[in-house]
Structure of Integrase core domain protein:
Amino acid sequence: MYVRFLLSLRNVEDLLHERGIEISHETVRFWWNRFGPMFAAEIRRNRVSRMRSYSNWQWHLDEVFVKINGETHYLWRAVDHEGEVLESYVTKRRDRKAALKFLKKSMKRYGNPEVIVTDKLRSYGAAMTVIGNAPKQETGRWLNNRAENSHLPFRRRERAMLRFRQMRCLQKFAAVHYSVHNHFNQERHLYNRDNFKLNQTAALAEWRQLCSG
């Protein structure tokens, strides 16, 4: 519940109290720190092979400004053409070195896409020249809207958590949050209600099986 919904640790404590389960909010923190990354890794593992089979795979790269104790950090994200967040990476700078490390991390896990859409930040072009992906890069004023729109769930979560206090916590939570969001993001506006309910039920069944394992 803590990862899926806009809830605080104490909100989860109160909800479990209504169900007759007496725990501390620190227990919820321990549970999510212990099991959240495990669930996220399993979700990613189940999707990697399917993603790599796309012949027209397109990535959208963008970065979000995040304040940690008053200092600006950058949350880099790779989003595919279906709107799923593939990878996230937190850095203190927005230079070529950071962009190169982020690209190498993403490509090591997911392979090489056919097209990479970015904004006009020169760090992307410099990093792709090093990798050899410069011909695959595309930039444009509205081409990267897919990545821009994918900021919204993270921003809502950031406000609910009253910001992050450590770079390590931001990296860990972003990785877990994006994986779980991908799993339950059924894009309901693309389906009629019957098909949406079927997809939602299948996602929930897979989630319960993953958690029980």
The chain has eight helices and five strands. Residues 9-212 form a domain with the Nucleotidyltransferase; domain 5 fold (CATH 3.30.420.10). The first helix runs from residue 9 to 18.
